[in-house]
Amino acid sequence: MWACPLDRTYRNARLEIHYKNIPPILLQPPARIRAASLNLQTRGRRVGYLPGAGDSVAAALEQMGYEVKLLTGADLTAEGLRGLDAVVIGVRAFNVRDDLAAHLPGLFEYVKAGGNVVEQYNRPTGLKTDQFAPYSLRISNDRVTDENAAVTFLAPDHPVLNTPNRITDADFENWVQERGITYPSQWDERWTAVLAFGDSGEEPLKGGLLVARYGEGYFVYTGLVFFRELSAGVPGAYRLFANLVSLGRK
Fold this sequence. Notes:
It is built from 5 helices and 13 strands.
């Protein structure tokens, strides 16, 4: 076990990479920390999180001030979801988890009774179920790779762009790596497409953020790469994600 003497100052981080198919790698990049200051408002208090293939969104929700409860498929019942203001589904959850499909009726009933679900992107291949949302949608390999792609507000008066944070063009500045991946290419008319982005020379894609009313609640499906933006401390991504989680809450 390596330990650093307390009487020395170090300016490098230490990152060890271990994978089965490559030799161990040690990286020592310059140490740095990113701190973001932003005007952020939230609604609700308790959020359930269904982990997917691995991301730090649950930690970002805690940084926003939410109490986060990690969920399993067996928790998708009236009792297991009681008291939750929203449920967030991790990236690629329906590609990697076998315990969700059979319990989805309980999740949909939660939404119908006034709950709010935010489902992050899945890949179109290897899905464990064809019905992972209350209304149909078809996932494609479409993506917007330009992190600076211009945004068009398709539904500017929608609550997701106005409550509790008013979203503007400024909230899409300084995004990293891309705008979104594996966008839905077709969806039921009951979904509302909220935003459009497009790479240079291509038609803007409208499937990156879809929101639907289902009963008394809301169901969101998003291909926007919040898992990258939140971990990078992008203020606008925090503000927009807070709006998604706050849907229907007062």
